[in-house]
Structure formats: C-alpha cells, structure tokens
Design a protein that fits this description.
It is built from 17 helices and three strands. 25% of the residues are buried. The chain is mainly alpha-helical.
Length: 343
Amino acid sequence: MQSKKPDGFLSNHCDSDSIALFDAIGGNNQKKWKLLKHIFRNGDEKLKLLLQRYKDYLCGEYNSRNTQADYFCHAKQFLEITNNKINKNTITKYKAYLNKKYKNKNTRNKKIIATNMFLDWLGKSQYRMKNIGWEHPVKPTLKDEEISKILETAYNDPELYLITLLIWEGCLRDETIINLKITDRIENKLYIKYSKTGNKSIILSPRMIEAWDKYLSIRPEPKPDYREYLFINPYRGNKGEKFQRILPIIKRIKKLGKKCGIKIDITPYTIRRTSGTLRQDKFSEFFAGDVKIVQRMFNHKDVRTTLRYDQRTDNDVERYLESIYNNKQAKYKPNQPTYKEGL
C-alpha cells in the first residue's frame, strides 16, 4: 500500500503559482481541493508530470483561477473515464458517460469544450467532440422596488452595502469581490487583476466611492499578511484574514433577501443577473439607455454575452404591447373633428 505523503509534498513539487492555484481552489471548492491533492499524491509520475504541465499552461492562458481549476478538473475527469487512453472507442465511452451522468445540457457542453481544449493541447485534435450548444433558460430576476428595498436595507451595514453595490452597480462576481485589494482602486476606477474579459477595470459610481470610504472607516483590523485586502473576515477562526471562500457573501445576501421579504431565494448572481436585465429594460427606472453601456459595466468582450443577461419574459412583451395601445388611445380622440371636417 502506498504511504500517504505529508502536506509538504505539494510545496516540494509545485512552483509558487501552482500552490497559489491550489489555495484558490481550496477556498472555493473543497471537493476540487481534495481531487487535486489526490492527483499529486497517488497518480503515477508520468501522469503527474503531464497534468502539471497542463496546469502551468492554464495558468498562463487564463487569469481567472476558477477557470483554471475548472478546465484542469475536466481534463482529469476525462483521463479517469478513458483510463488515460485516447482513441475513438474511449471518446465514444466518454460521451456516453456524459449523457448518462449529466442531464443538464449546459454542463455536458461545458465539459466537451474543456475536453476539446485539452485534446488540442495534447496534439490530439482529430478526436475533438462536436459541441452540443447552450441552453439559455429564463431565470428569475428582481423588480425595481425589490432592488431598491435591498439597497435601502443594506445601507446601515457598511460592509454589506458595499458588497451589494459592487454586485449591483459594479457587476462583479463574488469570487472577484473577496480578492479585491485596497490598492486596486485609483480615484473612480477599480482595477481587476483576475478578469475573465478584456477590460481590467470598472467605473465606480459616486455612491460606490462613498460606500467604499465609509467601509474603510469601520473595517476590522487585519492581520499583517492581509492588510492589502479590502474585505477582512470579522468572524472567529479566520478573524483578521481575507475571506477564503464566497460562502459568507452568499449567506449574507440570502439573509438580506429574506429580511426584505423577497419570496425567491436570492444569491449574488441573482442581483447581478437582475442588473443586466433591468438596465436593458426601458420600463425600469434603472434603464441604461444603451446596451453598450451595460456591456462596459459587465466588462464583456462580446455584446452577445451581455444580451444573455436579459431575462425578460412574455409578461414584459405584454406590458410593452399594452403601452403602445395606451399611448395610441391617448393620442386618438374620436370626438375631435379632422382638419377637413372642421372646415
């Protein structure tokens, strides 16, 4: 039986960037952390070297550590299912596994895309699988008054208010928020180091700047190694450190939604998705007026990605058609004679 290697095994066999990636994965998904540690403890040397090289490639190709971790784990899963053999039979076996294991079409397509990239990297492009496309189901969003209630309720808690604004107006993901540093802000711009898109900054609104400064005035005292991070954990256990996981933010947003009496179970992504919807809805008080503005707020390279955030439904179409009818009714006055009739 192979002996269990100590935790120092990773630091002895991986560079600093690799260890940073492991730390990031551990902070966001404990299952991935265990999987990666298992690879480097129990895998054969040739496989470990191959996966180490692929991981280094991902670190250079993608800024987002979550993206790096996802692609890495998809490649590892592919090798496990195919027993480290790549041919037509094993590819067929892998596709059958995906169809049986994952009912969600988007999950299967995501794994196929990641596997195809791994095959390209291996020089095995002839075994690429055909993408099955994406589904874009309409997901629930909040109404104008619900967003206003959330912001109003969060206002008296400087930390929660700033987090909410960074999601609502900054359109940032929760994993980006927990890694923000004080020095990332220069005047009214916030520069994002690990961005999935082309733009590396967001524009801060006046009330975001005000909320930022207010939070800094009551920010918990950080430990020496965490002074540069914006959000500091005030809770025991990791008190004085940066948030290692997004779970505390998710819990606080859910609690905020319940406090506001919102019926659906909201998450940070619910608020972000709502931001993308209402800012494209001309009937909303938050209407941006131009999809290009929304695209810049979300830092999307392609405007088609921005359009996917628009979750309007048939009810919105009915409201639009009713508004046209009501406007025409207001303009049409049947008892008023026309110009010729008046003569």
